[in-house]
Design goal:
By secondary structure, the chain is mainly α. Helix content is about 65%, strand content about 0%.
């Protein structure tokens, strides 16, 4: 069988020189265009991210402008002073409503419930006394508490006694 050959099918190379040149040109085009294409895609993604950021910033600016316009209204300022700072117009009697159910809703489930409930009633009366005080009294109380804590920390502690007969400052 090795001796039988078909006359028109002589041993031809698989790739001709034209096909080889064409493959090399295509590969070089892909290699040349890959980096700029990747840069183009990443820049487009960055541009869209910056546009989204700019839109978000515009929305925030618009919201702040609306808020600034609200603060220009004297009635809004009065309402905010009443709500946030508990201010009252002269002649009004301000009231602060305290919900006692909100403080005692957390009941412990351990055997120390009796002791905890007595603590809750003690803290409930302290909470009512705290709610009756104006806001600046609470601030002043915290300043006093910080001052007494600083004074307690400033008192020097007694030094431990030194070993007897050892006068050298070095460890042995």
């Amino acid at each position: 069988m090795a001796g039988w050959r078909i006359p028109g099918l002589a041993a031809r190379p698989r790739f001709t020189s034209r096909a080889t040149v064409l493959v090399l040109v295509l590969c070089s085009l892909v290699a040349i265009l890959a980096y700029p294409t990747r840069q183009f895609i990443s820049q487009r993604a960055e541009i869209s991210a910056q546009r989204a950021k700019a839109d978000h910033a515009r929305q925030q600016v618009e919201q702040l402008r609306r808020e600034k316009a609200r603060w220009q209204d004297p009635e809004y300022v009065k309402a905010q002073a009443r709500a946030r700072l508990h201010y009252a117009v002269p002649g009004e009697t301000p009231y602060i409503a305290v919900d006692p159910a909100g403080q005692s809703s957390a009941q412990p489930s351990s055997s120390a419930a009796g002791a905890a409930s007595s603590q809750n009633t003690a803290s409930g009366s302290a909470g009512e006394a705290k709610a009756a005080k104006p806001w600046y009294a609470g601030i002043w109380d915290s300043v006093d508490a910080a001052d007494t804590a600083a004074a307690a920390a400033a008192t020097p502690l007694p030094l431990p006694p030194s070993p007897v007969g050892d006068t050298s400052p070095h460890d042995h």
